[in-house]
Specification:
270 residues; alpha+beta; PSTPO5379-like fold; D-Glu_cyclase (chains A, B); homodimer; PSTPO5379-like; eight-stranded antiparallel β-sheet; 2 domains; Hydro-lyase (chains A, B); globular; four-stranded antiparallel β-sheet
Chain lengths: 270, 270
C-alpha cells in the first residue's frame, strides 16, 4: 500500500483538500488513528459511560471542544476540523444510514454536535509489520474486513448494541505472538477478542467472506485462522440499535480514519 | 439487617478478631466494599489487563503492596491485612475449590502473593435505600443471590471466563431510576448489565431460584423483574475457567467483603 503521508497532519490536510479519499491503513506510521462518532450534546454523557463500560470496542481517545466547535481538544491536533479531516463519512438520521462515504459533514454538523474519537486498530499494525506479521489487507491493498457480531455491549443510558470486530488472518501458531504484540495498545483495542472457528461461533459470525464493512478477504490458507479485534465502527452499530437516539448522527466511513497528532507511545499501556 | 459496624476499619478489626463472619451488606454505610482475589505475582500483569478490558465485572480499586506484603496500598486502609480482613475466604488449588468460607488465609498466602481489590455493588446499596429502593436481600437479611452467566469476558493473557452477576428484584417501572442511581458508581459495577426475562435469556440464567453463590431469593412479586449487575465474584469464576493458572489462588467468600477506607464519593464518576 502506498504510504503517501508521513505525519497525521499531512493525512488530515490531504483529506480536507479532497486529495485523499482512501482507507488510512499504513498511513502516517507512528501516529494514532481514530474512529469518529458525532452526537448531540444531550447524549454525550451516556456515550462517555458506554465507552467506559466497553473500553475494548469503544476506547475513548478524545473529544472535540464542545459548544459545536469542530476542533479536537489538544493534544490531538491543533489544526483540526472533524467535519473534513477523515477521507470519508457516514451520516445517520433517526438510526438509519442516510449517506455512505461522503467527503465531508459540513451540512450535518449542528450547533450542539460533539465529536468523539475512538482508538483504531490500524495504530498497532506497524508493530505487527515490524515483527514479520504484516496484516493481510496491507499486503493486498484492500480495506480491512469488519463484521457485526451478536456480542452484546454492556448498556449505558440510552445506548445499547452489539460489538463490531475487524479481522486479520494468522497461523494458529502465531496467535500468542500476535496477542502479545497488540496487548499493550489498550487505547486502540488491545489484544484480540476471539479467534479461530470457535471465535466465529462465539461472536455469531457465519460467513467470513461477507463482512458487513470493508472489503471481503481473499481465501485464507489451510493453516490460517481468522483473528478478531474490537472495532471502533461499534458506535455506528450502536446508533442503529438504540431507539431513543434521534436526529443526525455522523461517523467516519469504516476504514477511513481520522489521524491525530498523538504518537503511538501515548496510547500504549505502561 | 444489623448495622453493627459504622466504619470500614471497625468491620476489618471485627473480621480479624473472628467476631464477625457474616455477609457485609449494610455494614459501614458511606464506605467502599471490595471483592478480593489473590494471585501469584507472575499473573499480576495479565490480571490488571483483564480488569482494564472488563471494568464492569472487574473494576480494579486497588492492590496490596507487592513482594508478599499483605497490607493494602494506601489510601485503602493503613491498618490492613488481606489475609484476615474479610469475614470469610475461598481457596482454590489448580483451578478447583479447596476450601469454602474459611476464616483466614494465613496458611495459603505465599511470598509472591498479590491481593487485588475489586469494587462491590454493596457500595451503592445505601443510595438505593435513600431513594426508597432498598434491595430485597437487605430487608430479608439474606445474602445477595449471585449467578454464573454465559457472557464471555474479553480475554487477557492467561485469563478467560464468564461474568458472574448479582440480582436485586424491582418493578419494571423503577428500572430507569435504579439505572440512574447506580450509573455513577463506575468502580463498583455501575448500572445494571441486563434485566427482565430478556436479560435472563441473554445471560443464560435458567433458574432464578438456584443461584450459584449467595442465598436463593424469595419468590418475586408478579409485578417485579430480576435486575442484574456485574459482580466481583467474576475473578473466582475466571480462575476456574483458565487452565494455565496453577497453584493456590484465594478469594473472599461471596457476599463477605473487604471494607476499605475509601469513602463512597471516591468511587463515583465525576
Amino acid at each position: 500500500m502506498l504510504n503517501a503521508y508521513p505525519t497525521a497532519i499531512d493525512v488530515r490536510r490531504a483529506c480536507r483538500s479532497g486529495a485523499f479519499r482512501e482507507p488510512t491503513a499504513g498511513q502516517c506510521p507512528g501516529y494514532t488513528q481514530t474512529n469518529l462518532i458525532v452526537l448531540p450534546e444531550k447524549h454525550a454523557a451516556s456515550f462517555r459511560t458506554l465507552c467506559e463500560r466497553n473500553p475494548v470496542s469503544c476506547p475513548l481517545v478524545g473529544e472535540t471542544r464542545g459548544n459545536g466547535d469542530p476542533r479536537f481538544r489538544t493534544p490531538l491536533g491543533e489544526d483540526s476540523d472533524v467535519r473534513f479531516d477523515a477521507p470519508g463519512y457516514n451520516v445517520y438520521e433517526n438510526g438509519k444510514l442516510l449517506h455512505d462515504d461522503i467527503p465531508d459533514i459540513r451540512d450535518y454538523w449542528q450547533d450542539d454536535s460533539v465529536g468523539f474519537l475512538i482508538g483504531c486498530s490500524f495504530t498497532f499494525e506497524q508493530a505487527l509489520c515490524d515483527a514479520g506479521l504484516t496484516p493481510r489487507h496491507m499486503i493486498t491493498g484492500a480495506n480491512v474486513p469488519m463484521y457485526k457480531t451478536n456480542y452484546p455491549l454492556l448498556p449505558a443510558g440510552v445506548f445499547r448494541g452489539e460489538m463490531v470486530v475487524s479481522m486479520r488472518p494468522y497461523k494458529r501458531a502465531d496467535v500468542e505472538r500476535v496477542r502479545d504484540i497488540t496487548r499493550p495498545y489498550v487505547k486502540t483495542h488491545g489484544e484480540p477478542v476471539a479467534w479461530g472457528p470457535e471465535g466465529m461461533k462465539q461472536l455469531g459470525i457465519h460467513d467470513l467472506y461477507r463482512p458487513e464493512f470493508g472489503d471481503a478477504p481473499e481465501p485464507l490458507a489451510d493453516d490460517e485462522i481468522p483473528v478478531f479485534w474490537g472495532c471502533g465502527v461499534t458506535p455506528q452499530q450502536v446508533i442503529m440499535s438504540s431507539p431513543h437516539v434521534n436526529g443526525f448522527v455522523m461517523g467516519h466511513a469504516p476504514g477511513k480514519m481520522i489521524c491525530v497528532d498523538l504518537p503511538v507511545a501515548a496510547v500504549l499501556s505502561s
